Amino acid sequence: MKTTTYLNNLNDLPNIIANKATISEVILATRLFSQVGKLTIEEMSQAIDSLKSEGISYCLEWDILMTESRFSMYKEQFRKYADLEFKSIRLRDPGAINFCLNEYPELDIDLLLDTGGHHNLHSIKVWKKLIGERLRKIVLSIELSSGVVKEFCSEIKSWVVETELLVFGRILLFYTPRNLVSPLYSDEKLEDDYIEVSGSSEESPHKGFPIVENQHGTFMFNTKDQFLLEYIDELKECGVNDLRVDTRHLENNNLLSDVISLVNDFDKDKAKEIKEQFGNSTTRGFFHVNKSDVLFKKLKNKRTQRQDEGFLGEVVDVVKKSHMAILIKGMRGQDRALSVGDELRLTTPDGKVKTTRVHKITHTNGTETEFAKTGDLILVAHVSGVSVKTMAYKN
Amino acid sequence: MKDAKNTRWVPELLAPAGSLEKLKVAISYGANAVYLGGQKYGLRQAADNFTIDEIREGVEFAHERGALVYVVLNSFFHDKDFDGLLDFIKELDDVGVDAVIVSDPGVINYIAENTNLEVHLSTQASCLNVESAKLWKKLGVTRIVLGREVSIADAKKIKEEAGVEIEMFVHGSMCMAYSGNCVISNYTQGRDSNRGGCAHSCRFEYKIEDGKKELNSYFMSSKDLEGIRLLQDFIDAGIDSLKVEGRMKSPMYAGTISMVYSGALAYYKEHGNFLSDDLLKWEEELTKVTHRAYTQASLVDEADETSIYNDREHEDKTYRAIGKVAQVVDNEFIVVDVRSAFELGESLEIMPFSNAHVDVRVDHISNLAGENFERTRPGALFKIPYVAGVEVNNLVRAKVVS
């Protein structure tokens, strides 16, 4: 198990060089190709010279998404730097993947599946099939729980492909190509092309979302940083190859040395101590459990949801002690969807279940009928407690 | 002389169907296709969504009228979500849906291996360029719903160079983020936005601080898309399908938007242009449904600050949705399913599936038992006098009197 980190500016170099024995590689996060990178191309060239001389491998991050017009420009830029002996190229946009597959057969690909979907093995297998032998590493989503990470790592290892997971860094919540911050400061001269503000909403209990705007658009991050240093032993067990440390939002990347020391010699107490010293709000996110679908059942009233079996229709109008109108929607293909004598089961929006025998069916023009068909709007005697949106089933 | 009327090609108009009721309304008002969600696997967990019987009925209704039905399976699956998928997609295949809309490569592959269903790539996959489209095509998708950030000009290039059908949004609410790349709800509400739990945090007002000053803004909220004036561009670019957003919206929305865009496309089929006296009328109709301020977003140029909707509430409504016609008893009465109350003496507009609306001054109201009323109430059915030409599922609205 090794560590991967970013080179975001040249000041990061000494620390990286000092820890080179345990750093598997350095991610070059340039302003040009990286979502929130700050390294200029000139600095990248300088850094590559240093990294080469120190024997540290490096890869280029090209993690932005690009519309066709923008992509044409980025392809031209990439052609200028593609021969800089990157160990691999980290890609997110499927277009960039296809471009590199076709035009740069010597370049290995690190697949960024850390955002968006890709929370199932089927999906990852498809990517493996598409990229083939060129797939060097898969960057896993931090929304996966440890059990899932373990399962994925086991499978991916059998393909002789590496895995990487963020153990420390900002959690990206939102990414748009639009400039959302600078218009708010339109009356002021902005000194930098990298703007950082914080945002809080009365409608959210979380305060101080970091928001960055640069040439690639606007990015909002979680108020808490991902922090899995206390679980490095679990990650080792899961079989993750590389732990990624992203300190680009901090003044320095001293945390890198701490992580490396924990990777080599894990100590939970020491991890806790590092966390306390770090000071900022942190989270383990979904590492132990991801239940982000359990609240779905509360989003709507299941009782007003139609079930297919025995479904007759919906109560659409009620006059208490008089009648209820049922719009017959079910029982299609039957000559007599509802007949006098049938028994109805009524499921009300508040969960009550009532049963009643139909003694009389009346059309809306007042005429009585022995039976009604699908599509008819009919009146039957009201049943106490039944309201509009009650679902009617035939027993 | 050859009649040019039927030779001019226009894109498919694809409308949202959040329920069977909305499906019937949208198709009746001219949509060529609808998209809907089943009880699982879609991105609108709070919507009514369809049972398999409803999908079957929807498909029959659509096919009888020459329209198509697409089912969304565009959530980002976790492994456990595959439980039950096989049965569901086989049912969809049996029922005869015309395509499924999918965003997850694993699901695309799974469907291809197990069914004959045609697969469209969801906008959730954020397909934005030619190379990306080529890659998705390799997986077998026949149509790509492009990301909302793509211009019509870029879409034309993608279609020509990748050789796939292209679907673009023409109307409705916009995600501000690259679709599928927003997880605010996941981390702040514990609801996975990419499995149907989006809490629309982008619509909140935020206090922005930079250390020097503070200001309040709805900076992440987008205006709604309106592409009515760009229909010629879509046609010239050969865009195959024009999608209207809004499965969670009302039947009034589904019907009105379908009516306007299908009317405009029908005009083009007949005249070969959109230089109609009705253009302003079409635009006016689009303001009669609940909406935020309109923008053309990224369809021509990259969206800028003018596309931000700096307000929490929707525009003031000039019309209110009264409801829809639930039953017509010839020469006797019309039953209105009332959503917003109206009263004796009020003027209603009933909207036939084609042709101009019918003005009705209400001079008699009774409930289904025949008892007379002066005012209706929402959530109930009321009879008004018969009007010739009115059909079941016609929408009913009224001008807001200030």
Protein model, in words:
- The complex is a heterodimer of chains A (395) and B (402).
- By secondary structure, chain A is α/β, with parallel strands linked by helices.
- Chain A has 9 helices and 24 strands.
- In chain A, a hairpin with a 3-residue loop joins strand 15 (311-319) and strand 16 (323-328).
- In chain A, helix 8 runs antiparallel to helix 9 (268-278).
- Chain B has helices at residues 20-28, 52-64, 85-95, 105-114, 130-138, 152-162, 184-188, 231-237, 251-271, 279-287; strands at 12-16, 33-37, 68-73, 99-102, 119-121, 143-145, 165-172, 206-209, 214-217, 224-226, 241-244, 294-295, 319-329, 333-338, 347-351, 358-361, 365-367, 372-373, 380-385, 395-399.
Spans of chain A of at least 5 consecutive residues whose pLDDT stays below 50 are none
- Pair with the most extensive interface? A-B, 95 and 103 residues
Rounded to the nearest angstrom, the distance between the terminal CA atoms of chain B is 53 Å
Span between termini of chain A? 62 Å
Work out the strand percent of chain B. 15-25%
Count the beta strands of chain A. Answer: 24
- Determine the structural class of chain B based on helices, strands and strand pairing: alpha/beta
Structural class of chain A: alpha/beta
Helical residue percent band of chain B = 25-40%
Name a few traits of the molecule.
heterodimer; A: 395 residues; alpha/beta; eight-stranded parallel barrel; eight-stranded antiparallel β-sheet; 24 strands; 24% helix; 28% strand; B: 402 residues; 26% helix; globular
